[in-house]
Amino acid sequence: MPKKSTQKNENPYKYSDSNKRYYTYDYYLRKTFGGKCAKIPIDAGFTCPNIDGKCGVGGCIYCSGRGSGDFAESAELSVREQYEITRAKLSSKWSTDRCIPYFQAHTNTYAPVEKVREKIDAVLGLDGVVALNVATRADCLEDEICEYLAELADKLPLTVELGLQTAHDSTATLINRGHTFADFVRGYERLRAASDKINICVHLIFGLPEETREMMLGTVKRVAELAPEQVKIHLLHVIKGTEMARMYERGEYTPLERQEYVELVADAIELLPPETVIARLTGDGMADTLIAPEWSRKKVSVINDIDKELYHRGSYQGMRYIAF
Predict the structure, then answer these.
(1) How far is it, in rounded angstroms, from Cα 275 to Cα 73?
(2) Does 146 reside within a domain?
(3) Helical H runs in the chain?
(4) Could you give phi then psi for residue 217, rounded to 5 degrees?
(5) Cα 100 from chain centroid?
(6) Tens-digit pLDDT profile for the chain (324 aa)?
(7) Contacts of 218 (CB under 8 A, 6+ apart)
(8) What CATH number should be reported for the domain holding residue 303?
(9) Would residue 179 count as lying in a domain?
(10) What's the domain range around 268?
C-alpha cells in the first residue's frame, strides 16, 4: 500500500524527524541528551556594561528591569536555591530528570572571573544537571573569562549565548546596545579560539526601531557567515516601563505585523546554515507587562504559521545559505 503523503514524509530537510523544516531545539536535545531537558533560568545578580556606566546607562531600550531574567527566581536567593525551587515548579510540566541551568539575566561574564566562577560553579554537580547555558555579551569576554569558560566546557556541554540583536551599528546606537558589530565579532572569535567544545548561540531581534526587512535579513547573512552552533530569533516586545514603551506611546514606533514576522523568519531560516540549531523562533514576554504586539501572545500559533509558510514555499533551512 502506498505511503500516505504527509508534511512529515515529504520533508526534504535532513535534520528533522517531524514536519519541522529547520533544526529545532527539541530535535537537538533528543539527539544530544536522549530526550527533553528542562531549562532552569538563573539570576546570578550580575548587571550590564550599558547599565552601570561602562559603555552607557539605562540598558537596552527594550529590556525589562530584570535584564531578560523575568522568569527566574529572585537574585537574593542563592544559585542553588533558585535551581531547586524552579526545578520543583517545572516537575509537573516536564517529565524529565535532565536539567540545563540557564544563567539568563543580564550579562553573566561581566564581573571579575573569581565572582563569575563562584556563581556558575555553584550548579556543577547538582542533581539532574546535564549541560549549562550562560548568556552574556561579546564585549564581556576577557581572556581570563574565556579560559574559565573553556574549563567549564571540559566538564559538561556548555552553550554560551551572545546577544547580538543587530549587525547594524546605527541600530545598536539607537537601542543603546553599547558595542559595535566589530566588537561583537572580536568577542565571538576570542570565544571560538578558547575552545572548540563551546557551543555558541547568537541572539537576533526582528522589529527593532527603524530597521527595514533588508537590514534584518542583512544581519542574518552576517551571522550565517559566522556559522554559530545555535541561533535564537526574537520578536521585539514592547514592555511596560521601558524606553521602548515610551517611544511606542509617543507614536514613534510601530511593531511588526504577524504575517510580516512570519515571512521574515521563514526568510531567515532559508539563509542560515543547515547545521545550525534554531533554538527559538519568537520570544516569550511576561503576560502582565507586554504592551505590543498583541498577536505575539499566541506563540504556538505563530510558530505553526512559520511551519506552514515554509511548507507552502517548498523551502527549508539552508536552502539559500551560501557557505563562506
Answers:
(1) 34
(2) yes
(3) 25-33, 79-90, 113-121, 143-155, 169-174, 181-194, 213-226, 243-249, 258-271, 299-313
(4) -70, -25
(5) 14
(6) 555 557 777 899 999 999 999 999 999 999 999 999 999 999 999 999 999 999 999 999 999 876 565 677 999 999 999 999 999 998 877 778 999 999 999 999 999 999 999 999 999 999 999 999 999 999 999 999 999 999 999 999 999 999 999 999 999 999 999 999 999 999 999 999 999 999 999 999 999 999 999 999 999 999 999 999 999 999 999 999 999 999 999 999 999 999 999 999 999 999 999 999 999 999 777 789 999 999 999 999 999 999 999 999 999 999 999 876
(7) 167, 168
(8) 3.20.20.70
(9) yes
(10) 25-313
How far is C-alpha 251 from the geometric centre of its chain's CA atoms? 28
CA separation for the pair 272, 264 (Å, rounded): 12
Residue entry with cell 537574593: 76
Q: Could you tell me which residues come within 8 angstroms of residue 54 by beta carbon, excluding any fewer than 6 positions away? A: 178
Query: How far apart (Å, rounded) are the C-alpha atoms in residues 209 and 215?
Result: 11
Q: Which three cell numbers stand for residue 182?
A: 566589530
Give a yes or no: residue 9 inside a domain: no
pLDDT digits (tens, 9 = 90+) for 142-161: 999 999 999 999 999 999 99
Number of domains in the chain: 1
Using alpha carbons, select from 201, 226, 219 the residue that is nearest to residue 267.
219
What does pTM read for this prediction? 0.95
Q: Are strands 290-292 and 132-136 parallel, antiparallel or unpaired?
A: unpaired
Tell whether 156 is covered by a domain.
yes
The label of the residue with cell 547568537 reads 202
Cis peptide upstream of residue 293 (ω within 30 degrees of 0): yes
Q: Give the total residue count for the chain.
A: 324
Question: How far is it, in rounded angstroms, from Cα 40 to Cα 88?
Answer: 10
> 99: Cβ–Cβ under 8 A, 6 or more apart, which residues?
37, 38, 39, 40, 83, 87, 128, 129, 130
